[in-house]
Amino acid sequence: MLRRICICSQASERRPIGPVNSYMRIATISLWNTNMNRDIKTQTVVRQRFARSFLDVVVVRLIQVKPRWGYEIMAEIRNTFQIKIGASKIYPLLSSLEANGFIKSRWKYEGRKRKKLYEITPQGAQFVESVHNFLKEQVSMHELHKRILV
């Protein structure tokens, strides 16, 4: 015969539970896992939407962290945000960012291969800082509204 134990936060609270309570506990754990999975999915969707909507900000920020070439940027976006951004979207964006003065490029030679390495400019760093400040402002307004409403 199996004996079910209630899993509680403290060891002293562990006690055998009856069949009705055990089913309720299993249902509660299942519901908690479902809610947790839903939260993770929601976070993933938000991250993906942010990356797609603000791809220019994401790219400049990645280049700010370290100079990169186009393929490396695409791979980092795929790994970080679980979205695939192709060359047909990245390279025109990089050209536009360079034309606007946010990034600059130079050719880097690795053996016989030649790669275009992108680096951030002071104007690009100021752009990232402006976006960061705006997002902080939005979060603080959200926190203020939460305090007022609660």
Describe the structure.
- The protein is an alpha+beta fold and 150 residues long.
- Helices cover 66% and strands 12% of the residues.
- Residues 1-29 have low confidence and may be disordered.
Beta-strand percentage range: 5-15%
Strand neighbour order, sheet with most strands: 1-3-2
- CATH architecture classification of the largest domain: Orthogonal Bundle
Distance between the termini: 49 Å
Number of strands: 3
Any chance you could write out the topology, listing elements then pairs?
Layout: H1 19-53, H2 55-65, E1 68-69, H3 70-81, H4 87-99, E2 103-110, E3 113-120, H5 122-149
Antiparallel strand pairs: 1-3, 2-3
Helix pairs in contact: 1-2, 2-5, 3-4
Main attributes of the structure:
150 residues, alpha+beta, Arc Repressor Mutant, subunit A, three-stranded antiparallel beta sheet, 66% helix, 12% strand, disordered N terminus
What's the short story on this structure?
The protein is of the alpha+beta class and 150 residues long. 66% of the residues lie in helices and 12% in strands. It folds into two domains: 17-53; 54-150, Arc Repressor Mutant, subunit A (Orthogonal Bundle), CATH 1.10.10.
